[in-house]
Structures are given as C-alpha cells and as structure tokens.
Amino acid sequence: MAATTESVKADAAEAPLLNRRNLTLGIMLYLVFYSFIRWYEGVYGWSAGLDSFAPEFETYWMNMLYIELVLEVLLFAGINGYIWKTRDRKVMSITPREELRRHFTHWIWLVCYGWAIYWGASYFTEQDGTWHQTIVRDTDFTPSHIIEFYLSYPIYIITGSASFMYAKTRLPTYQEGLHLMYLIAVIGPFMILPNVGLNEWGHTFWFMEELFVAPLHYGFVFFGWAALAIMGVVNTEVMAITKLLKKDLA
Amino acid sequence: MSASQSAVRSRAEAVQVSRTFDWMILFTLFTAVLGGYHIHYMLTGGDWDFWTDWKDRRLWVTVAPIVSITFPAAVQACLWWRYRLPIGATLSVVALMVGEWINRYMNFWGWTYFPVNICFPSNLLPGAIVLDVILMLGNSMTLTAVLGGLAYGLLFYPGNWPVIAPLHVPVEYNGMMMTLADLQGYHYVRTGTPEYIRMVEKGTLRTFGKDVAPVSAFFSGFVSIIIYFLWHFFGRWFAKTDFIADDAS
C-alpha cells in the first residue's frame, strides 16, 4: 500500500498490534502474586499450618480460604461478565488489521493461561506432595491444599475461561461454532477442580497416606491430558494468522 | 474481512509479526505441556521420581519410561506432522524437567528441607533426544514407535546411572544391609509415605540374578512401543481444529 501522509499519520495514531505492556503486566502479575503466596506458605505453613485444630490455623489459613473463595467467584463473574458485556456485535465486519490486533490480545490471554497452568498444575501440585511428606494429614484444608486446589486451580480456570470468552466474542475465527479443542483445553483443566471432591472423599474415608501414584489420583491425570488440546488451538491460530498475513515469509 | 487485503503493511512487518507469534506460541505450548505432563507424570510415576530410595533396579526402571513417553509422542504428532519441527519429545521432556527441578529445589528443599540429593528428578532427556532424532531421520511414526520406543526404555537406566550409582552402593547400618539410598529414606522420614507402601524390588523372580535392571528396561521398552503408538494418535486427536455447531450444546 502506498505510504501517503495520511496513512503515516494514521499509523502513528493507531494502537500497536501487540500491547507489550499488557503482556508484561500479565506475566508479572502471576509471578509477583505467586511469589508472595510462596513466601506466605513458607512463613505461616510452619508457624500456623501444622495443626488444623489450633486457633492460629483458623486465623492464617481458614480465613485465607474464605477470602480467596469469595474473591475468585467475584473475579470469575466480573471478568467474564465484562468480556461478554463489551462483546463485538459486528465481529465479522472488522478490518484484517484489527483482527490481527485482536489475535495478539488473544495471545496475551493464552500466554497468561499457559503461565497460570504452570503454576497450578506443576508448581503447586507437586509442592503438595512434599507438604504431605512433612506434616500429618488432619484436615482436607491443609495449607498446601488451600493454595493448590482453592487458589491456583481457580486462577487458571478464570484465565482460561476469559481467554475462551475473548476469542468467542471478538475473533471471526471462532464464529464457526464451538472450537472443540479450545473447549477441551479449558474445560479439562477446569474438571480437575471438581475432581478434588473425589480426592478428598477418598483421603478422608480410606486412604490417609500420600502415595502419589495411587489410583485415587487418576482423575487428575485424565483431566491433565486435556492440556494437550492447546495444540488444536495453536493449529487454528496459525492457520488464521497465516491467512491474515498473506505474505510469503520464507 | 476482505479476502484480498493483508493485515500487515510490508513483508518486514509480516516477518516481525510472525516471529512475535512464534515466541508467544512457544511460551504457551511450553507452559501448558509442562503443566499437563507434570501432573500426569507425578501421579503415575511420581513416587519413583521423587525419592532416591524409590529409584530401584526394577520398578523405577519399568514404570518411568512407560508413563513418560506419553506426552513426547503426542507433541511429536503435532509438531512434526504439521510443522516438520523435530523437537516434540525434547520440548516436552525439557518442559517437564524444568518444572520438576524448580519444584524440587524451591519446595522439596526450600519449603520442607529434603536435601536435593534425595529428591532430584530422573533424567529423561537421552531417550527424548533419540525419539526426536529417529523421527527426523526416519520420518516414520512406526519406526519411531518401534525403534524409538524401545530405545526410550533401554536408555533410561544408563541415562540415570551416573547419578544414581553412588547411592546404590551397599552399607551396613545397625546390623542390616541396605543401600545408601535406603539409608537416606530412613533418616528423612516421610509422614505420608510409610515404609509399607514403598514399592521397590517387588516380586520373587530372581532367575536372572544380578541382571534385574536390563530385564526391566527391555520390558519397559516393549511397553513404551505400545504406549507411543497410542499417544501418537491421542496427539493427532488433540491437534484437530474442528468446530462443533453452537446449537449442539
């Protein structure tokens, strides 16, 4: 396209394709927040988290659980409600450049989703293993569970659902219907949270030890496989972006 | 959108956009695979991976390759068959091991004070590299499954041998013969894993005398072949781009 004075002015005025500030902020938000959580665990896990019948356990851990549950429900409703409320009702008539910009924003969400999955499914889940080797299990709401099950899992669920909601409400690519692998990539890891019900039921009634490979845990394994569905999302995105670029990049 | 219009204004911008997406995709793929693979591996082979006194010559050697060839096969099915990137297995295993090492150091040691030399993760990299190389050179799923799967099982023990060997030397402690790794386990009591659920050296078959590890490795390689096939097709399925009708719900 010919670079006229007008188009140069328009270029200078328009928003960048990728909002790098939002990308950095997104990654830093999780990093800083979880670093704080890790510090909190380190201090109050030992000083107030060993005996669930102690009054300090109520102060430092059960109150944390109540607060985080309320905040998560509010965050889930707020973020998804906002994305839905501000949806583009003419999504099929946006310009290619705007579409590309939205793909970048969508990828900021996906980067955050992957990052949140790492913290939840890897960092805090394996961490729970070592906490169980250190304390005697006397409650379902042991400190590592209050962080792993009821904080890090809801956070990746909120991030994943927001990412899906963004794609569905703002990108023409996802107007064909419901993207099966995107659904699996979001709903599968989400199902790990309800599976906590099975886990706690089993550990409460008949299995007090913490053998990590016990069949009781296989529900987590099954739903963890769903993270692979991110490959279907990547493939769809690659096709969509290639179509938008229409350039030979070789 | 217009069918003839490009979203970028020059080839240079297209290249820049493409490279930026590459990094974002790589980060997301890496972290998502890390999360899924780690939760899978820690809950199917984790106890053998967590502790040196679980790292025996029989069950660790058997279980770890079988349960860990899964995600590499699936990710290869996407990255090689769609993009000709021969890095699926290595990417998966590097992701898993990054997650494991961070955890063992920050949490097993940093939070609950198990020394790193009792809780370091198993090394899965040699097998993963071989899987990728065989796929790249052979361009065949069958060859990778049969040759790569077998190699993946066989290479596991040698790949870990330099690390585990010093902990398998025998010691006598209070009149009992055990390995140094066993001794670590006695000293670092784990409240959730009492001795009666530690699964090591199970079984009575001693026909092959001292050759327990090679037999276990061959069996592991055999099952790894089957698991590779299975997970290759899982990977293909997860890489689909299908939509279902909105009203199907």
Structure description:
The complex is a heterodimer of chains A (about 250) and B (about 250). Chain A is an all-alpha fold. Chain A has a domain at about 95-250: Particulate methane monooxygenase subunit c2. Chain: C (Glutathione S-transferase Yfyf (Class Pi), Chain A, domain 2). Chain A is about 75% helix and about 0% strand. In chain A, helix 2 (about 20-50) runs parallel beside helix 4 (about 95-130), helix 4 packs antiparallel against helix 5 (about 145-170) and helix 6 (about 180-205) runs antiparallel to helix 7. The longest helix of chain A is centred in the middle third of the chain and has 37 residues, at about 95-130. The model of chain A has no long low-confidence stretch (mean pLDDT about 90). Chain B is mainly α and about 250 residues long. Chain B has one domain (about 20-235): particulate methane monooxygenase, chain B, CATH 1.20.1450. Chain B has helices at about 10-45, 45-50, 60-70, 70-85, 90-110, 115-120, 125-140, 140-165, 180-185, 210-240; strands spanning about 170-175, 175-180, 245. Chain B has a two-stranded antiparallel sheet. In chain B, helix 1 (about 10-45) runs antiparallel to helix 3 and helix 5 (about 90-110) runs antiparallel to helix 7 (about 125-140). The longest helix of chain B is centred in the first third of the chain and has 34 residues, at about 10-45. The model of chain B has no long low-confidence stretch (mean pLDDT about 95). Classes of the chains: A mainly alpha (about 250), B mainly alpha (about 250). The interface between A and B is large, with 84 and 75 residues. Strand 1 (about 180) of chain A pairs antiparallel with strand 3 of chain B, so a sheet runs across the interface.
